[in-house]
Each structure stands twice: as C-alpha cells, then as structure tokens.
Write a structure and sequence with these properties.
The complex is a heterodimer of chains A (412) and B (376). Chain A has two domains: 123 residues, no CATH class; 220 residues, MetI-like (MetI-like fold). In chain A, a hairpin with a 4-residue loop joins strand 2 and strand 3. Chain A is built from 14 helices and eight strands. In chain A, the strands form two sheets. In chain A, strands 5-1-8-6-7 form a five-stranded antiparallel beta sheet, with no helix packed on it. A three-stranded antiparallel beta sheet of chain A has the order 2-3-4, covered by helices on one side. Chain A has 412 residues and is an alpha+beta fold. Chain A is elongated. Chain B folds into four domains: 68 residues; 34 residues, no CATH class; 231 residues, Orthogonal Bundle (MetI-like fold); 29 residues. In chain B, strand 3 and strand 4 form a beta hairpin. The termini of chain B are far apart. The chains are: A alpha+beta (412), B mainly alpha (376). At the A-B interface, helix 2, helix 5, helix 6, helix 7 and helix 8 of A face helix 1, helix 3, helix 4, helix 5 and helix 6 of B.
Amino acid sequence: MKRNSDQENKLPLKRRIKDILASGSTYLFSSFSIIALVALIIFIFSQGWSTLSSEFITGNYNSNSINLVTSNEIAPTENTFEYKPAEDEYFSANWGLAFMNSTDNEGLKTTIISYVDNNANINNWVDATTGKPNTLIKGCTITSVILWTTSEASTASVIVPTMSDAKSVCSAFEKCSYVLNINLATGGQGIRGSLITTLYMILITMAVALPLGIGGAIYLGIYAKNNKITKILRTLIDMITGIPSIIFGLVGGLIFLPLTSGSTSIIAGSLTMACMILPIIIKSTEESLKTIPHGMALSSLALGASQTQTTFRVLLPNALPGILTSALLGIGRVIGESAALIYTAGTAIMDYIVPTQGSASLAVHIWYLMSGEHQNFAASCGVAIIILAIILALSILIKIISYRINKTQKGK
Amino acid sequence: MESTDITNEILIEKACKIFQTNAEKSAKRKLVTDKIVKNIFLGITVFCASIIIIVTGFIIVKGVMPFIATYSENGNTGKVDIGYFLTGMRFSSGYDSDSGQFLYGVGFLIINTLILNILVSIIAVPTAILTALFIAKIAPKAVSKIFQAAIDLLAAIPSVIYGIFGVGVIVPLIRSFANSIGYVSSSGISMLSGALVLALMILPTIISVSVTALNAVDENQIKGSLALGASKTQTNFRISLGNAKSGIFAGIILGIGRSLGEATAVSMICGSPTFGITINPLDPTVTISSQMLLAIGEAVPGSLNYDVRFSAGICLMIIIIITNLILNDVKEHVSSVDKKPLFITKVFLLIKKETLTVFYFLKEKLNHEKKLGSRK
C-alpha cells in the first residue's frame, strides 16, 4: 500500500491533477445520485409519517356521514352548560358543545366535536335517514352546519361557519340559537379498500402467472433443444419486458374488459399484470433450474423414474427457492404498477371490494390523490410508505433466499 | 416329479412374460405421459411467447382503425387525417368539415418525447456511469456494499413514488430557480422537472447493470494496465470502463426504454399543454405516453377518442424500437474490437458512393457530349 502511494507521488504533477479531477468527479456524481435518492426516501417519510395510523390503514375511503335533524321545536334549551375547556378547545355554553381543531386522515384541517354535555339539546336529535337518536356525536367531524339567528325562516339570517377553524364554529354557535341541521362525518380517507384490492390483485395475478411461467420455464430449461425455434421463443418472451406498461394497459383493456361486461375490474387488471410479469417468472425459474446439478436429473432417470417424474419430484422441488424469488419479484411489480391498471382496473377508490368490479390499487390510489386538483401529499406519502415497506420486506426476503441458495450450493 | 417341474417352469415363464409385458406397458405409458407432459409445457411456452404477438397485433389493428373506419364524434362523422396525424401540433384539434376528417396530431408529441428523453439521458447517463464506477472500483468494500443494496432497493420503487417526490420537491425547486432567473410565469411544472425525475428514476437501473458489468471486467487486464505504469484512476477510466462498455450500454438501453414508456410520473410532473413543441426546458411538455393517459376516464372504449390512443401507441412502440436499434448499433460499434462501423456511417458512405458514381457518370457523359460536339 505504501509503495503504491509512493509510486503515485512520483507521477508528474499534471497527471496527478488529472487523476484527482477524474476520481473526484466519480465521488461528486455518486454523492449527488445518492443524496438525491436518499432525499426521496426522507421526503416520503417526513410527509407521510404523520398520516400513518391504524385508522388510516384500516379505515374506509368514503367517510361515514350522519345527518342530524330535530323533530321537536328547534329552539335550544335556555340553561347554560358548564364545562372547563382545555387549552385548544372552544366551548359553546348555550349548546353544551365543545369544539377542537383537528386533522383528518388525509391531513386536512377540520373541526371535531370534542365534548357533548349529558343534558345537551343535541342528544335528543335524530338521524335523518334512520329516525333514531344518534349517540355517537362526540369525536365526529363537522362537515356542515346551517345556523339560524331566529326561529322564523323569513326573518332569520343564515350563518354557515367555516369548518376548518374551531373558534369560528364555536362563535357561530354562540351567536345563533337555532339550528336547521348538522352534517357530521366519521372516518374516511382510509386505504383499507385499496390495500384489499392490491391483495386480490396479487392473488389472482399469481394464480394465473405462476403456473404459466413455471410451465414455460420447465420447457425452456429442461425439454427444449438448442435450436432455432427455442431461440425464437426465448426472444419473443424477452421482448415482453420491453413493452411499456401503458401499452399493456390499452391492450389488456381491449381483451379482458369484455370478460366483465366492458367495465373496469380487478380481474381484468390482474390478468393484464399476469401477462406483464410472465417473463420475470420464466427468467428467474429457468435460472434456478439451471443451477441444479445435472447429475441429479441423470441419477433420477437412471433409477427408473420417467422424465415427468424427474421433473416434478426432483427438479421442481430443488428449484423452489428460485420460483419463490420470481413470485416475490412479480408481487413487487404488481404493487408498483399504475399505468396499466388505470386502464384495466379503473381509478375509483372503493371500500367494498368485488373482484368483478373496478377498484384502485395502492399505486393507483396515489396517482388518483396526486393527479386531482387538490394534491394531497400527506395521504399519498402515507400510502407510499406502505408500498415502500412492502417492497423492502420483499427484497429482504429475496436476499435471504438467495443467501440460503448460495450457502447450500457452497456446502455441496 | 418331472411333470411338476415342467408346470413350474411354465408358470415361471408365464410370470416372466406377464412381468415383461407389464414393464413394457408401464414403460410405454411413461413414455406417452412424458410426451403429453412435454407437449403441454411446449403449449404453455408458445402461449407465453405469443403474448407479444397478440399485443402487437391488437395495437396495430386497433391503431390503424381510426384511419380506415368511420367514427362519429360530437355530431361529426369521418376518419382521422393521416397526414395531420403524423405532423399535427395539437392532439385533438377537432374536425375539418372540408375534407370530412378528424384532426388528431401526434407529431408534436413524438418530438416532445424525443427532446425530453435526450435531456433525461444527458442528465442520467454520465451520473450513472460515474456512480457505477465509484461503487464498483473506487469505494471501499463496505461502502460499496451499502450503496449497492440501496441502489437495488431503489430500482424496485414504483414510478408513482418518484412522481410524488417530483411534485413535492423538484417542482418547487425548479419554480424558485425559474423565478430567480427572471422566468416568473413558470409554475415549476416543466420539462426540466420531468427530466430530473425521470433521470432519477432510471439511475438505479443503469447503475446496477453497469456495476455488474464493471465487476465482470477481467482482473488480469487491470493488473496488466497497472503493471505498465498506468495510475489507478487511468486504469479505472480506460480499462474498466472500456471493457464494460457493452454491459453499460445494455443498462442504458433498459433505462431509456423505461423512461420512454413512463406515463404516470410524467403526467404528474410535466403538465398537460394541449399543443406545440416544447423547447424551453422551463415550459410544461406532454409526451406520447402521458397524452395516452390524459383524460382516460372520459374516453369510452370503442369511441374515436379511445381508439386514437392505440394509434399513438403504435408511434410509441416504433419510437422505442428505433431507439433500441440505434442504441444497439452504437453498442456494437463501441464494444467491438475492430470498431464495427455505425449503421448511419454505412448509409452515409453508401449515399456518398452512389452520388459520386452518378456524378462521375454525368461528368463522363458531359465530356463525351462535348467531345462529340467539338468533333461536329
């Protein structure tokens, strides 16, 4: 090492400066690319971490709305309620309600009802759709309220407070003694539906792609002779990877949408994805079939087993790690795909998932949130974190599998 | 005694025969099943291989339809004008009532796609090659292992996530940059932001393929170069990069292929201008793939608005195929020892040769005629 540096010192100055500049450029550019890629991860986590909660993951996308009306006279009770509001709470003494600033699952500012007095007038109100009294008022988000200053509709001035600020809501309630109706909402913006859609897609895609892919790999890896036809088949399969996903989306829509009477569906999306990931599965499985020592197949044949028995009993079990790896790679691809699914599975975010209906997967969910007029960073970054976590888990699994394969091969 | 022996022998013979025929039968059965199983797998493989043919076939058939079949849209009926389609500067510019044809143009989309991707490769290729060189040859082993694991992970990140990053970080950065150089009208949604995000997206792909190629360079060549007195940096740049050229080009081809077909991230970052070629990097741009994705929700399958996307798809495929062919040609030119000439140079030489022949021929003819004239 020392001799080496001595040697370098002896180089002419001009050359040394050139060398330093050249290797410096590699340091510069690699640090640039690494910084950019690390910035991406940091950005996603810093924006999305706050939205990540169990409610966000398990909640419905569409909020559950409650429309409260009163069947009695709409006048409030005369008595004033007593409650000691916390620091960020605003209490309306003549209604017995306390309001608080909050953020919903998407990270948008809202006002929630943080306290309801036991004798408050609102407890006697009924749900407009069911006609039964609603007791789940506390903790709900206020989506809209129409307040009247007097009971007479003709003379009353209507006040609709802005919903993003608890203070203004509270002062509006204090000012008015009559309420026409209150719309409350609970939950919403959750990604449970998209998560389940993605799971469905993975299942259906794998159920279609794995048998086909493994079958193709077995033919190419075991049976195929080294001739022109095999070469052509291989090239054709390789070419599938070169087709952009948007083209797959268009053609997939054309072929598979008629299966579900022309509308977008999870099945159509999954079948399109299955076509897209076939080459990945074939490649990876074939590679692992190739690593099996040739003697193994030969000894099985010598013991009297037929080629079919050898394939299914000897070769396939030994290729299992490779098949698993290919499946994991395929799953990663399904989770990340967006363009093809926009055409085939639609962009509507659903809560109740039926495989024959269209529903957005996680990646399409992000696209939907970001491509609208109001881009929602917090929620889309939250979804992105989940995708990243799944991809990280998948790649760790792949690493473990390949590490174990290497270990057993070295053991032999 | 003898008779029993004979009967025993007969029995044994019989048993042997039964065994033999049984063995033969089972062997035959096995062979038949082998053949059936083999053919099933062959069938599966042919099916897998035919996907590409089906996809291309559908795209071509559907994409040609707008030029042949008659559609009705907004109360007008007609075909799509093919001349305007190839040269048009606006994707949906309505209906030409004189010729009775719809005007859909992808000419500007093709040029925009090419400009955007040239910008992407200018940013991504040098960065990726130098990063790969750093990871494979310069960095200490521990650092390079961490870097490589990170790069492998990043290659698996879906494009929508790059899209979020683009909208959240790069677009505001470009906006403030544009404002600082006096380009106040820019909102940051621009070709430059798109190029940066796409470059970032294809970096991991190019890097990981290039690192593999660099690691596969023959150790003896490196040692030989060092022994001849070249410095380490010289060896890295001349020998390692020189020998890994073909692998690096394979990575570039993969990366550019991904960025050419990318739709969702581009549609999030580059905006959606409806017409015109974008040359200023700070202006928004629209590519073929993002145009294909634009307002897909409103397009009804079977309508002209939907089918013309297939025609745009044909253009996208042709662009990708031509780009791949050119890059492959360059790859072979660069990586072959005897410098196989580029296809373009071949064509150029051929044209030169032909023109020269024609030129000489004409000259000879002229001289001949002159001679004839002078004789008269």
